[in-house]
Amino acid sequence: MPILTTAIMNLIVILAIGVIVGLGFRRYGRTWLSSKTAGLTGASDITYALVGIAGSFIGFHVVVILGLLPTPLMLYLGAIVGAILTVWLWRGR
């Protein structure tokens, strides 16, 4: 049973990280000009949240595959970095 609760907790934390990073980029990662034309691009809050979730899953699993200090904190830091990189690259920077 502890393995199941750990897996569910990891899933919830990874989803939360992805949503927070995605919405953070949507709200605060824009320049003045892009904030004025944001309605024209078609990317909504849900799109940014989904891209952030995908990036957090990628970052989490890359850290697991590489075996970099398999502590929960390191796994979550990998998820944060993965989400930030994915959303940043997705925006075309």
Tell me about this structure.
- With 93 residues, the protein is mainly alpha-helical.
- It has a domain at 45-93.
- Helix content is 83%, strand content 0%.
- The chain has helices at residues 2-28, 32-36, 38-41, 45-66, 72-90.
- α1 crosses α4 and α1 runs parallel beside α5.
- The longest helix is centred in the N-terminal third of the chain and has 27 residues, at 2-28.
- The protein is globular and about 40 Å long.
Low-confidence stretches at least 5 residues in length (pLDDT < 50)? none
Please tally the helical runs, counting DSSP H or I stretches of 4 or more residues.
5
How much of the residues is beta strand, in percent? under 5%
**How is the biggest beta sheet arranged?**
none
Q: SSE string, helix = H, strand = E? A: HHHHH
Our Rg estimate from Cα atoms comes to: 15 Å
Helix content: over 70%
Kindly, what is the distance between the CA atoms of the first and last residues, rounded to a whole number of angstroms? Answer: 43 Å
Which SSEs are present, and which pair or pack?
Blueprint: H1 2-28, H2 32-36, H3 38-41, H4 45-66, H5 72-90
Keywords:
single chain; 93 residues; mainly alpha; 5 helices
Short description:
This protein has 5 helices and no strands. It is mostly helical and 93 residues long. The chain has a domain at 45-93.
